[in-house]
Design brief:
Helices cover 30% and strands 22% of the residues. It is an alpha/beta fold and 160 residues long.
């Protein structure tokens, strides 16, 4: 299973300060690399909270000892959060919600805390009715994120 964060490629020479990896980035990258090398169906993901200067790791069940040990050795604090669903469970459900509701949903994916699915609706979708319908059909909670009509960068018109 792939990690949510892409690995950073080493660069020779000095980096501008805004491109230099921070201790938060280093911590999140170390956890993400471990997860990528040790696939597990219970993984949620890794997230940086810059405001509290912490890294969160979401896991369904008990995180492996190796990951917890790695987290303890990092330069920034890591908090493990129990998530009711894993990324492996939520991804297919999110795709199913999108595939079955393309006229209403413009994008979807696992929620940031892996407690369900978030959806972005087309501007033409009635929010309250659509959310009630999606939640009635889904096996996991579906949460409204925003209204947004995707933009086709090739200039082709998009509509629901």
């Amino acid at each position: 299973m792939a990690s949510q964060r892409a690995s950073k490629v080493p660069t020779q020479g000095q980096l501008p300060m805004d491109l230099t990896p921070t201790p938060l980035d280093i911590t999140a990258d170390a956890l993400s690399a471990w997860i990528a090398k040790n696939p597990n169906a219970n993984v949620g993901g890794v997230r940086i909270f810059r405001d509290t200067k912490t890294v969160a790791a979401y896991w369904k069940g008990t995180p492996p000892a190796g990951l917890r040990s790695l987290a303890d050795a990092q330069p920034m604090p890591v908090t493990f959060y129990a998530s009711p669903y894993s990324l492996a469970e939520l991804d297919p459900m999110a795709r199913q919600v999108l595939a079955g509701n393309r006229h209403l949903v413009s994008s979807t994916g696992p929620s940031k805390d892996y407690s369900g699915i978030t959806v972005t609706l087309w501007s033409t979708a009635p929010i309250k009715a659509t959310m009630a319908e999606l939640n009635a059909k889904a096996a996991v909670p579906v949460v409204f994120d925003k209204v947004a009509d995707p933009v086709d960068l090739a200039g082709n018109p998009h509509s629901p």
